[in-house]
Amino acid sequence: MNRERLDHWTPDGWCARPAAQQPHYPDARALQTALAALRQLPPLVTSWEVNALRQRFAAAEEGREFVLQGGDCAESFADCRPDLITNRLKVLLQMSLVLVDGLKRRVIRIGRLAGQYAKPRSTDTETRDGVTLPSYRGDLINDPAFDESARRPDPQRLLQGHAISALTMNFVRGLIDGGFADLHHPEYWNLSWVEHSPLAVEFQRRVDAIAASIRFMETLADGPVPELTRVDFYTSHEALLLHYEAAQTRQVPRHPGWYNLSTHFPWIGMRTADPGGAHVEYCRGLRNPIGVKVGPSMTPEWLRDLCRLLNPDDEPGRLALIHRLGAGRIEQQLPPLIDAVRGRRVLWLCDPMHGNTRATDAGVKTRRFEDISAELAGAFRIHRELGGRLGGVHLELTGENVTECTGGARGLTDPDLTRDYRSTVDPRLNYEQALELAMAIAELDHLA
Ligand code: PEP
Ligand code: CO
Question: Which of 229, 233, 271, 320 is disulfide-compatible with 291, CB 3.0–4.6 A?
Fold first, then answer.
């Protein structure tokens, strides 16, 4: 860490920069009161965990580990329910099992959860029937109902968001520590409706292969191998609402520097990645590993600036670049971006979701499974051809049997989308599509 360059950094220094995508709180006093309360609350994660994740990212940069990051586009407070949380954990655990088996690498599991409550919007206001109100910006800020009081940004939601994140984290930690993630019992992760899935046989084959390997290892070790009984699980969310993030940015007794202790892995979204803007200024002072979304408008110069600002000392495990270019653009656009940062320490992740969003003829927002896997295939191959490697994936998915993306083993088509479309923001892979994608990733890595 370069102390000198960070001498003048403070968690609130971003306030002097242009801050995109922030709500306007009509009651400034109420905001300050809520933030003061938030600053006093215990953190959601610890600096030890954040440092451990940074080290594992460094290993992923070197090809020794692989990142699986996934979850909802936006969580809602109402989704803090045991069944939904368990299903989200199940799908990520099952995918990671397929990836460990296929890639023969450790997998870093990161949920887009316990804090993914703020969303960037294309306009500040929304007009319906001549009435203009602030846009819905996520449950951390306001309520989606189209009336004046629901849409008014409410600072109490900052405290509610912290509490709901803590409830979610508490349950996830309890499940993991209590043996839910024990590799001896992958049957705990089965989702009932999947028994009839065309993928069930293939998944079971992999589970059986892993069970055989575990028996083999334990025979050699002459007893249980502790690493197999629990897994590490990390959280992430877009560091969008800077007041919220800054109020949970702390110094700790035994580790120098500042930590965002609301999540292990905050990322900067496409719309807030201006090198002169508030989000980059805020994130550059953190010890957490930082992600940056890299979309089609990113230029090589811009990307170089971001690397210089966010990782001036080229620290291993510090910076993840998450490209989301779209299946039709990745061939053209990724190579110059890779060249722009050649020689620097970065972890490349691919988000094959956000560059492949389209509307059906009926105006429903969706994504094709084929586009998602095509972008991933391109990502694996292009990185390999240019002498590097893809270090992981960033996905929008759910453990539920929704119909939001088309394609996959069940061949969902546009008319199927009406059956169970629940997302209020972006379309997610359902459980089965997510598992199929994990199986495809293992193949793609071999082919690249
Ligand atoms: C997201 O990840 O939900 C998102 C808004 O992504 P991006 O910033 O890449 O558009
Ligand atoms: Co999204």
Answer: 320
CATH of the domain at 46: 3.20.20.70
Please tell me the distance from the alpha carbon of residue 299 to that of residue 171, in angstroms, as a whole number. 41
| C-beta of 270 in contact with ligand 1 (< 6 A) | yes
127 in a domain, yes or no?
no
3-state secondary structure of 192: helix
DSSP strands (E only) in 141-289: 234-238, 249-250, 259-260, 265-268
Q: Which domain holds residue 101?
A: 3-120+155-447
Question: Which atom of ligand 1 is found nearest the CA of 73?
Answer: 3
Answer yes or no: is the C-beta of 296 below 6 A from any ligand 1 atom: no
Give the predicted TM-score (pTM) of the model: 0.95
pLDDT in tens, the chain (448 residues): 454 477 789 999 999 999 999 999 999 999 999 999 999 999 999 999 999 999 999 999 999 999 999 999 999 999 999 999 999 999 999 899 889 888 989 999 999 999 999 999 999 999 999 999 999 999 999 999 999 999 999 999 999 999 999 999 999 999 998 878 777 777 777 666 566 677 778 777 877 877 787 777 778 778 776 666 667 999 999 999 999 999 999 999 999 999 999 999 999 999 999 999 999 999 999 999 999 999 999 999 999 999 999 999 999 999 999 999 999 999 999 999 999 999 999 999 999 999 999 999 999 999 999 999 999 999 999 999 999 999 999 999 999 889 999 999 889 999 999 999 999 899 999 988 999 999 999 888 777 7
Number of domains forming the structure of the chain: 1
Indicate the helix (H) or strand (E) that contains 247. helix 242-247
Measuring from atom 1 of ligand 1, which residue has the nearest CA? 73
Best residue among 238, 271, 428 to mutate for probing ligand 1, ranked by most atoms within 8 Å of CB? 238
Which of 241, 394, 424, 426 is the best mutation target for the ligand 1 pocket, counting ligand atoms within 8 Å of the beta carbon and taking the most? 426
Q: Which two tokens stand for residue 134?
A: 């602030």
CA–centroid distance, residue 204 to ligand 2 (Å): 31
Q: What does the DSSP 8-state code read for residue 299?
A: -
**441 part of a folded domain:** yes
The answer, yes or no, to whether any atom of ligand 1 lies below 6 A from the CB of 293, is yes
Counting from 1 in the atom list of ligand 1, the atom nearest the Cα of 120 is 5
**First vs last C-alpha separation in the chain:** 35
